[in-house]
Amino acid sequence: MYFEEISAIIKVNLRKLGGRTLLRAVCPGEHARRNSGPQLGTIGSNAMIDQYGRTIDYLRLSVTDLCNYRCQYCMPAEGVEKGPHGSVLSVEECGEIAQAAVRCGVRKIRITGGEPLVRRGILDICRTLRAIPELEELCLTTNGSLLPELAKPLQEAGVDRLNISLDTLRTERFREITRRGDLEDAFAGIRAAEDAGFQNLKLDTVLMGGVNDDEIEDFLSLTKEYPWEVRFIELMPMGPCAAWPKERFLPVTEILNRFPALEEIEPNGVARRYRLPGAMGTVGLITPMSHEFCGACRRIRVTADGKLKGCLHSREEISLRGLHGRELEDAILRGILQKPKGHHLTEHASDTPRTMNEIGG
To answer: What is the pTM of this model?
Structure first.
């Protein structure tokens, strides 16, 4: 039972909120509508706090597990079978879940996949989410290959910011990592994004020892010429790469050892940020392995088939499909309140049986 499940953490939240009387768990949006007083795990009326004191205001919403690439660390070489009609969330379901999440305090949504731009109706999904009044930021992560056709329509549909995955700047290596992609398509996508008016582009690079760590300087050089943030992300042992050799899992702090000229600037979310002297852009280091940031995690995830995950690496999931109104809000709150303290990647591979494309990168 929902209220029985959360009763064990009431004392924790009482201590965190200075001993105030907590009546029951409700979404901040419902709190505003009913004016019913303070609720379990919240500070003010627009935030949801989990049992470890983390403010949860960020949803990563996957809209497909399909992709036009087959990146080695993300999905099997043969790809994934397209499921039957109705196996993934509809446009309407995406909107309903997003609206409920916003009522529960979410203020930022990132659309992910798979490759979200292969999803039929992606522009309708973006417009639906952008129409939610209290949503402050709508972002999308893509491999960039379809941006020449879709960058401007995405901007017009209300997407605020783009992250573009780019693991190498070398043509043959790009084809090897993605198993089918063309580097020029990625560059064309970046150009299209800028032409469409997207600013502050972020390029996400998964750092792999013995694969692309010899390109770190090349990526850093991009920030000298362009106002982009190049973000190096540590490889995580999940899905196809769970059994990869240890030397593949290189801490991104190695970049600081190799390039001491990097100067630390203000962080952004989980990214520790740096800048080369005189550079137009910035460098972000994302360290889920070497410097676990679970204590500052603000996010929940919903998979393309409608399962809520409090943690990327957890086996636990809550099905949201078929739920509406208060029942849907309760399920989201339950997921927030059950969000684990952290992962165990330094001890063993990810606990989730899903691959990254199935969860949403």
So the answer is: 0.84
